[in-house]
Amino acid sequence: MDGQLVVWRKAIPAFACLLIVACGGSGGGSGSTNSPPPQPTYTVGGTVSGLSGSGLQLRDQSGAVLAIARNGTFTFPTQVSPRASFSVTVDKQPSGPAQSCVVKNGSGTIQSGNVTGVSIQCGNTISQDNASDVAATGDHAIETLLQFASFIGERLTYLSGHLAATATEQCSSPLRPHPGSATYTFSDNDNSGTLSAGDEVTIVLNGCESPSLGDYITGALTLSVGAPPQPADHASGFSATTDLSQFQLLGLQLTGPLQVAFTASDSSRYVQAQVAGAGVTMTYSGGGFAQPDNLVVVSANASRAIDYTTAQYNVQLAADYRSTRLNGEFSLVTKTPLTGAVGIYPVGGVEVFHGGPSALTFSAQNVTDNQYLAAALDADGSGNYVPLQGFFWEQNFTGFPWWEPRGGFLSAGIEVSPTFQTFERDQLSFRLLFAQPEVDPVNAIISTDFNVQTPIKLFFSGPVDGSRSTLSFIPQASGTGTIPATLTLNGAIVTVTAQTQLAHGFQYDLQSQGYVQGFNEIGPGAGVSLRLTTTNDLQADASASPAVAAPGQAVTLKSTRSFSTTSSIAHYSWQQTSGTTVNLVGADTATARFTIPATSHDGESLVFNLGVTDANGATDSAPVTVFVLADLRQPFLYYREAQGAAVGQAPAVSVLEYSGTGTVRTEFDTTLNIFRFLFGAAGGGSSDELQFFTPTQPIAPGTYTSDNTPGGMPFFVQSLPFQCNSPSWQFTIYEAVAAGDGTAAQFSADFSQTCPGGLPPFIGSVRVNSAVPLP
User: What's the pLDDT score for residue 733?
Assistant: First the structure.
């Protein structure tokens, strides 16, 4: 008993211990009924835009690679735990075309959801495939801004010389059938009477020609004028800011703010275009320099300075631009200014284009004699440039904002676009670059509205040797001689003036005898052949009624058609210059009168000169002749050159032919319907024949014109100065009576004839046994 009791007592502690364990004490256990839930995991993804190439691969933080074939959303398959880091990088850039894809929002820490905000933005880099497009697009865009700055500056220059509350400028090409115009509204905010800082100008353009932009512009500009950007010794200088409106330029629309600086003188020009903020948008719809594109130019600062004396330019560029067509963002900058002779590619300077990591460099330095431009490409930003020899010429690269915007190239054998076959890399050949006033590069006509008081300036590609250069004005009208020109040299600028004043309304050819020679030029020099038609702002016109009168007859001198295009006529002055002295009444008015003196002799010429002065102080003059004929019933023929203004012009052609100066006979053929006035000059001089011919009807009183008279040449005057092909004429007959002997018993008519080409018309009268007075 005692032994058993002892054993049982020994077992109690062990059993008790087992009970303690089973009750969940600190000794441990499985606890499976209270464990936490599993941890969540997330994915990383985003969007791809701008992708046009193939082969793009992305890599995530785990090293997993994801191939991207198209724009849109993407998601890596990798599962990422909360509070873990993630990253997305470009493992392989796309090719065909080569692009550079940039990751934005590509790293961070996983929070409590899938990552969808990673952005992959792809844009074209520069490769051999698109290098010429990248360069041409950027250069054309910046050139457009520079040319537009020139256009604005030229308009403000015009306004400064025609300052008024409103002014209108005619701005058109000689070839344009309907002239364009620019109308200005000027607000002189500081009451200075000049175009100065703080003023405002609104320009409404209606088909206004812009040689700078190579198009006609219709639209409106509102300009806030600033101070000149260059010193005041320039002839004109302005700065201006404007928001471009919807201008259509060779399929191009521009919108956005533009800041302009412009200064100009006879020997230099400076223009600057600045773009900031949102930039200027250029929408190309085709038909111009560039293919269809939507181009945005931001942070641009471009300038060009030209010295015309040495015919040198300096261009500096800096701009960022985005092209929809090229699907990327690019920039350009001139590391050193582009310099060279006006009208050719640079001989110095470096221009660099960037796109993604790539860089394209054009260098006009250290190039070979037969290559104007060295091009090299660093495609991946490694600094390893690969030369692109000849590549751009094969793709018609026309980059560099190098050309001067006024005029064309006017030398035979030289194309408007630069050629590259030449003996020297710094000068294609010595040649005429352009002329002032306006030049039409198609047919080398200066203008059909050339003011005789405006000097003609010729701008060559290098300094001119005046000792070997000769030019002359060759009139197109018969009976007038060649007028030598005087040359004033200022380096590459030649100012040409006629040694005898050019006549109003005449057409001239300005031609070089041989070639204009330059210093150290290669080849024969520059041939010059320009055609111009002269006009004058102030135009005096004088006529007499009648122009042939008998002693004792009253004559009126008239200036009713004189006018000024810029102001009004303030003063008239009639003076007699030859012939028997007459008593002029109203010599300071538009209409003067006198009576033919009884002492004047048969056939005498009474010559008068009209002087007019306008409100600006400009002067002009015109001569007029009155012939004395004692017997007005005898046969005579009178004709004269119809006058316009003629500053310093030689006496106008004025002719009276009658029996006192030669032999006169008439023919009146009623079978063939021909009237002839035949004059044979005394001493064997020049003879004349006036012929009027109505082939299908008898000659009768009435008005006949070149438009309504059928058949042949019904009217001409043989050997007169106004003989020409295809004239426009009018013949008004008052009396037409044939005599029985085949002559005219009575005949009286007035006529006019105008030749094409801008030559002055001639007017005249014929009288045979007639009492009909001259007009």
Answer: 94
683: which residues sit within 8 A by CB, 6+ positions away?
A: none
**523, two tokens:** 């080849």
pLDDT tens readout for residues 589-632:
999 999 999 999 999 999 999 988 888 787 778 889 999 999 99
**Interatomic CA distance for residues 435 and 455, integer angstroms:** 10
- CA dist 571 and 614 (Å) reads 7
Predicted model pTM? 0.63
Q: What is the DSSP string of 529-571?
A: EEEEEEE-SEE---EEESSEE-TT-EEEEE-TT-EESSS-EEE
pLDDT of residue 717: 56
- The DSSP element (H or E) to which 163 belongs, if any, is none
Q: Which helix (H) or strand (E) holds 488?
A: strand 483-490
The end-to-end CA distance of the chain, in Å, is 179
pLDDT of residue 68 exceeding 60 = yes
Task: Give the bridge partners for 627, in sequence order.
Answer: 548, 605
Tokens of 496: 């040409």
| Beta strand spans in 227-299 (E) | 236-244, 252-264, 268-275, 280-284, 293-298
For residue 132, the one-letter residue type is S
CA distance 772 to 762: 20
CA 432-433-438 angle, to 5 degrees, is 105
Burial 689-714 (b: 16+ CB within 10 A, else e): bbbbbbeeeebeeeebebeebeeeeb
CA distance 757 to 725: 10
Nearest CA among 394, 429, 392, 384 for reference residue 409: 429
Residue that is written with structure tokens 């320099």 in the block = 289
Q: In terms of pLDDT, which residue wins out, 201 or 11?
A: 201
> For 672-722, what is each residue's pLDDT tens digit?
899 999 999 887 777 888 888 887 888 999 998 887 655 445 565 554 555
Q: Are 302 and 337 in contact (CB under 8 A)?
A: no
> What strands lie across the sheet with 762-768, from one edge to the other?
654-658, 636-641, 762-768, 744-754, 728-738, 702-705
- Beta-strand pair 252-264/280-284: antiparallel
Q: Given 3-state DSSP classes, what are the helix, strand and coil percentages for the chain, each rounded to the nearest 5?
A: 10, 45, 45
